[in-house]
Amino acid sequence: MAYLAIYRKYRPATFDKLIGQQHIVRTLTNQIKNDKVSHAYLFTGTRGTGKTSAARIFARAINCLNPKDGNPCNECAVCKELLKANNMDIVEIDGASNNKVDEIRELREKVGYLPSMGKYKVYIIDEVHMLTESAYNALLKTLEEPPAHVVFILCTTEVQKVPATILSRCLRFDFKLVSVDDLNKLMSSILDELKIKYTKEAVNAVAVAGEGSVRDALSVLDRCVAFAEGTLEYNDVLQILGATDKNKIFALADSIFDGDVAGVLQLVDEISKSGKSMSVLAKDVAVHIRDLLICQRCKEPQKILNLPQDIYDRLKAQSDKYDSKRLLAALDNFNKVEAELRYAIDPRVSFEVVCLKTANDDSEEKIIQLEKRIAYLEKNGVAARPTEDNQKKNKLNEVKDFAQGRMIWARALKKVRNADSMILSAACAEIDKMYVDGVDFVLEVNETQYSLLSQTEHLKTLSKIIDEEGNLRLKLAKTAEKVTSVDDDIKQLQHIIGNDKLQIR
Q: In 320-362, which ranges are continuous DSSP H helix?
């Protein structure tokens, strides 16, 4: 007997064997048990999720003489006959090759014939989205009011291409992607039945490669079984999938995040010469970075990754070396380039460019330095306002700016005069030297002025005014003074405060 592919050999024959679609199984079996079968169904979903298998099971179940909980018994005369490929009561039509109006008209003529054995004659139209507009129009009336003995089941992977007039006449069922856990259980049971030894990491790698499609996963498993000698190992699966050597991926990741440009170019050259596709390599690097993030952020990363222990230990150690923000930025880069590589003139150069950009990315370091500077400024009483005007101002403030200082001080004096402190106003009026130095607004004051302005209330008021006018931090700088007598100090105070306000005792 000719070899039968695993996905065909283990195609589900009952709803109990249909994995990952419990929401659909429950609805269909309830309809069968309650004898409430509709005239038209639409099964939609990604390839390999069980649409055609469910249609065949449903077709047998509604005709079965002894259904068991909505499942066909596969033992009665009707079930045995319907299991044969040449039976007359389950008609499968490929919508891609029978998409013209003439084929649909021929189908309309045949729906009047009664089933040969069972209660219903079931028409399964696969890839129904491939029908032409005229074919849809020819199908409409029959689909809406078929004979009592006819059931239509339409299957498609692209439901958005099916006209609304068709959709409105069918009961729609959306098949979802099958989880990795469900695929693991299915493939483990198949390998046990085939008496093939395996590691759980190898089976998990096959399940992940299936990307939610049972047929795709079983096709990969079929190749792995043929490739493996003895026990099916994790590395066997990687070779079948054409994945890049893990050691090279670890080394490439280290070179990228350490900024080793020469190392990056050398590794890409070695991998390219081994015949690996740059698109596959980009995907492998993206998956590796994603695994690093899982190791950093998740409480039980090994349960999610399900990798061999030695690989997981290396992954965990590498994840501890790099910042998560850097990893996230790199993941975004490689995720984008994977799609771009399909249309790149030279995929290798495009891949090398994204590697070097990521390797030379010092934006994280710049952000850290900026955060430190903002924290310093806020701690010292200067609000951080990263406006365009302030950026221009900071460029001017790299040296002492006397002109800008006088302009700011002229505006500030107007507010000082309106303040409720005569002493503050008088002290400020005598200041004649001021300038901007970086983020500081410096007032050069003598000892007497300093003692007055440094008082908490006056300093707070003046600092607020300077911040409002120049977004700068007030700084009082004492000027070098000649030694004066007590009489000189008294005269200075009298001049600032006024003779009538100062009493000498």
A: 324-340, 347-359
